[in-house]
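Progress report, Aim 2. The chain analyzed during this reporting quarter is listed below.
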Amino acid sequence: MVTINNLDFFYKKKHSVLKDINLQLNGGRIASLLGKNGVGKSTLLHLIAGLQFQINGEINVMNYKPTQRNVSFLQNIFILDEELPSLPLSIAKFASINSVFYPNFSKENFHNYLNEFEITDTKQRIDKLSFGTRKKVFISFALACNTTLLLMDEPTNGLDIPSKSSLRKLLRLSMTDDKLIIISTHQARDLQNILDSVIILDNERLILNATDEEITKKLCFKIADGSENTDDILYSESSVAGNQIVKVNNDNEDSNLDIELLFNAVFSDKEKFLKLFNK
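Predicted structure tokens for the chain:
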């Protein structure tokens, strides 16, 4: 679906953003793209979408080169940026104008998704909506386009708790084996239960790219009970429930991936995680 080889990108030669990035992502997954502010998450999404061009390296998306902006490619990809346009158009007019570019767009799905977000009046002008409501409209449109690849940059920003729940529900419902959704987010817990692949960027490089199965095979996430081999513990932090730990899963224990705990663990010792996942 998405293959990136030896990717370099910089705005100025002395300000490298991404360096020697190699990444493979297959369909049927919702991948989280994590990293601190300014590490190039949004830039990577734009490169995959063909909105920016790499300096070196190759990007292959659905057997297309994004830089060529092929019509068939553009019809099958949608990018939802964090910043949304404030358009002087009604919701219905916006959908009518833009849906023609996406052959798989479903008007029925669009209205169903809007209803899930409790938006029933499509005559409302987009520029008169609150940021949160605009976010719901654009999320609904993005999902209704039914593209093979969907890129989302901070989709939970501006959403209240019920709307975040609705977003998780809609992402699950819209997912199929031939689709790939990549979500850049700082709010990993908002989407914890539906994400099944983790990508972590830091300081120009890729620190981690693994599925949840691969991560929980190598790592165990648990509350410490005192029986652990201290040499296996990679990271720990206190919580109300007790001391949360991430440890090397030498005992083949079953555990659930905690993305926020993983993120903190990775940034406590990046080199150790690079070695662990690149054996």
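The first helix runs from residue 41 to 49. The radius of gyration is 20 Å. These observations will guide the mutagenesis work planned for the next reporting period.
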